[in-house]
Write a structure and sequence with these properties.
The protein is of the alpha/beta class. The chain has helices at residues 16-29, 46-49, 60-64, 70-73, 99-107, 126-132, 146-159, 176-180, 187-194, 206-210, 221-233, 247-259; strands at 3-8, 34-38, 75-76, 83-86, 115-119, 137-142, 166-174, 198-203. Bound molecules: adenosine-5'-triphosphate and magnesium ion.
């Protein structure tokens, strides 16, 4: 029976889709059967990040509207045969879709997969509730910025009102040099503020920014592998984002970063 995890945040643009795609890929790499589901209707981009946008025939809306069976809408990832994408490419949705509709569509996948990862839209309105109501656990993504942490805090309190058994946090886009110089919150500051354990720490990656990361197989690999292992083994080993800025060469690197 699949574990169904919603990847949410409150604040937009903090890395939900990136985390969904990369965590999915790393879980699949470890031999688990994974489906990543786009519930960001209208502003979908999980298909693009996962590199399957050219392969879409049916999507989640088609499944809900009974135009196809859920298996027909699944797309196998080119990167790993254990990873599938359930896209959402409709921009115009004729019918009113609620959480129950999405849950029903996903029910057909529960026996086929080990993990169902739901990419949630930003905000805390209809789309958020629709995605969250389908899940049994949640990963809240936040960056170390005050506004993102504040939104994560609000989202965590809303999640408590759902039947979500466990809630954890992924800190994305952290920079070791800025944490060391006291200009950015550390993962433990965030953990203390939110009162929820940090399951994963993903460093800021220039490769993402420059667009040279291919989405799900490139930079950030070590941190995402650690996140996947933590999830599988129910542990929370921390990715050491300070390491590259420690010691003699690390301090030089830290000083050089200030000049960029
Ligand atoms: N660790 C990172 N380092 C650098 N850039 C990142 C990192 N994580 C995500 N990004 C970039 O941040 C942008 C937003 O990421 P993403 O689309 O995953 O956020 P989101 O929370 O899903 O956004 P939305 O709320 O719009 O759905 C993307 O351009 C992505 O490549
Ligand atoms: Mg997104």
């Amino acid at each position: 029976m699949a574990k169904t995890i919603v990847i949410t945040s409150g604040k937009g643009g903090v890395g939900k889709t990136t985390v969904t795609a990369n965590l999915g890929y790393r879980l699949a790499e470890k031999g688990h059967r994974v489906v990543i589901v786009d519930t960001d209707f209208g502003l979908n981009n999980l298909d693009v990040v996962a590199g399957v946008e050219d392969k879409i025939v049916f999507d989640l809306i088609d499944v809900i509207e009974n135009k196809c069976r859920v298996k027909q809408a699944l797309i196998e990832s080119v990167n790993n045969k254990n990873l599938f994408v359930l896209p959402s490419q409709h921009t115009l949705i004729k019918s009113e879709i609620n959480g129950q509709n999405v849950s029903l569509a996903l029910n057909g996948l529960k026996d086929l997969f080990d993990y169902i990862l739901i990419d949630c839209p930003a905000g805390i309105d209809v789309g958020f509730h629709r995605a969250v109501s389908c899940a049994d656990s949640a990963i809240v993504v936040t960056t170390p910025s005050v506004s993102s942490i504040r939104d994560a805090d609000k989202v965590i309190s809303i999640l408590h009102s759902y039947k979500i058994s466990d809630i954890s946090v992924v800190v994305n886009r952290i920079r070791g040099d800025l944490v060391l110089s006291g200009k950015m919150y550390s993962h433990s500051d965030i953990e203390k503020t939110l009162g929820v354990s940090v399951l994963g720490i993903i460093p800021e990656s220039d490769a993402f920014i420059l667009g040279i990361d291919d989405g799900i197989t490139g930079i950030g690999a070590k941190a995402f592998k650690m996140l996947a292992t933590n999830l599988i083994k129910n542990q929370n080993k921390k990715y050491d984002y300070l390491k590259e800025y420690s010691g003699f060469w690390g301090s030089i690197k830290k000083e050089l970063k200030k000049l960029i």
